[in-house]
Amino acid sequence: MNVAPSMTESNAPPVRGKHGGYERLVNASRALPPIAMGVVHPCSVEALEAALAGRAEGLIEPILVGPESRIRAIAASAGLDLAGIAIESTEHSHASAEKAVELARHGRVGALMKGSLHTDELLHAVLDKENGLRTERRLSHVFAIDVPAYPRPLLITDAAININPDLMAKRDIVQNAIDLACRIGIFEPRVAILSAIETINPALRSTLDAAALCKMAERGQIVGGRLDGPLAFDNATSVEAARIKNIHSDVAGCADILVVPDLEAGNMLVKQLTLFADADSAGIVLGARVPIVLTSRSDSVRNRIASIALGVLLAHSRTAVAA
């Protein structure tokens, strides 16, 4: 299930033009049986379109969880055909989240996708201690990005859930991202722990966290990846910038994973790459018993399908591990 392009250890300079990451991701998912995906409170045209697009691509069999009469009215007004699609009717968004989590807990769906409710509502149900989908791992979000000017797939975390994570939260954020990278064919990924600078400064907490995370990896508290940090964005992604600053590292200049200091930095970075660098992106929540697809109203159909495809790949990999 390798959706990463073949890569050598040589730090090749960036090549303009997209690298086919979207096509590889969707094709890899399409080659697998479609999964049942619970679409939580799809009470908007965008949410319904995403579910129908995933079905049309052969990736999912959506189960819509929300007020049935409202869902059907929205679909009718937008000319969307819901024939053959199951609906689990609920009264309101809170009930939609609880019902969707119940479906996942009982194995009726292999993944969830956020509809038009608030992310906090969905995650509140996911994290419920008695009836949720908690694991020992903290929830975190990863964007898989295909940037035209960068010669390899790029994972960015966490830009959507953990606002200002502490060191132990960052440990789970890093491990979740490494696990995802391995599942999509990026083995022993190079992990850059980002800050504004590449030296340790006690006044800048992100540099201390970066150093601690690297030591945790040396001691086996983080496994499966090669870590370095603190690194600034330029010397994490540019071989030339790393050379100029005399940084000698097998991560600097060729990172596969960027771990941002906090949600604000990550959110701005992803949006800049998407809007100004013409990057494709797919987003997924990790750390629960099933993958959770988060889509935004501003996402393109292409990015929505990519996120669904990523959820399908992870759902199948989890099933294979469980077997």
Question: What's the quick description here?
Answer:
The protein has 323 residues and is an alpha/beta fold.
Structure overview:
This protein starts with 20 loop residues before the first helix and ends with a helix. The chain is of the alpha/beta class and 323 residues long. It folds into 2 domains: 1-10 and 137-287, Isopropylmalate Dehydrogenase (3-Layer(aba) Sandwich); 32-134 and 288-323, Rossmann fold. It has helices at residues 21-30, 45-56, 68-78, 93-105, 119-126, 167-183, 205-218, 233-237, 239-244, 263-276, 301-322, and strands at residues 35-40, 60-66, 86-89, 111-114, 140-146, 154-157, 190-194, 226-231, 257-259, 280-286, 292-293. Helix 2 (45-56) crosses helix 11 (301-322). Residues 5-17 have low confidence and may be disordered. The longest helix is centred in the last third of the chain and has 22 residues, at 301-322. An 11-stranded mixed sheet has the order 3-2-1-4-11-10-5-6-9-7-8, with helices on both faces. Helix content is 41%, strand content 17%. The protein is globular and about 60 Å long. The chain has 11 helices and 11 strands.
